[in-house]
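Researcher: Next entry: ABC transporter ATP-binding protein (Candidatus Abyssobacteria bacterium SURF_17).
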Amino acid sequence: MAERRNNEFAIETHHLTRRFGHVVAVDDLNLSISRGEVFGFLGPNGAGKSTTIRMLCGILRPSEGGGTVGGFDIVNEPEKIKRVIGYMSQSFGLYSDLTVEENLAFYSRLYLRDWSVAKQKREAIIETMGFGEYRDQLSAQLSGGWKQRLALACAVVHEPQILFLDEPTAGIDPVSRRVLWDILYDLSQNKGITLFVTTHYMEEAERCNKIGFIWRGRLVACDSPSVIKSRTMTDELLNLKCSDIQKAFELLSKAPDIIDVNIYGDELHIVVPQAREGAETVRRLMDGAGVAVHMLEPIAASIEDVFVSLSRRN
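Model: Predicted structure:
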């Protein structure tokens, strides 16, 4: 196992930049992620999330800048980094013609040279993640949620210091997502593993200790969810339920006093400078259009509201 260096940060980058020709995929990225932290990395498709992970994992060389992962330099010590990290992608990348136990055996031996230690770790992860009755089943026959659980088990069977997860819950049902996150929190809180997670599920981002929002390669916000919400949403937010949501949306989208409006299920989230005056404007517009207001009240901004606001602002 690679030598562990004393460093309060599990991941740290300084002006990290990656270009592909004239395209700047990651632009002057500065991050400091503490050990044992759950860090959520958010941004639209093509924003630079996966490119960042590839550089941090020692797979892709930066064009400029640098950083450390687990105390090792991402430019000069990529092989040492690979020994102290785990990686789990959004697509199931395990061997479909192998059983659960055979997949775990392969990955444990890949990372751990001692056969007896590898077997011990493998048995422990089978018990911890509830694979007892599935150990002889082909991975191809598992449900989506169990496949992702197996992918996670293979990523942590060697007990890495840092775990990179690229949209780990994409495409699985809500119950399986909750179970997977319970396991992730256990790894962070009880095992001290640092989690670097990309996700498009905003309720998952809310559960992170810190989140960073990247847009066209640039980090535009980075802090705890509560701090980012308070700093980003300087305007106020109204929640509207009404008789004709589509008509209300069209009216409010054109209103000069309304900053922004978005549909959330059967509700509208309306961004206004001041909640009281904004509510009066909304009621006046709805009354004039014959739209019945069932509920109109101020609400606190969610991470999804922040995500939308930052996207449109940038």
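Model: Note for the record: The chain has two domains: 9-224, 233-313.
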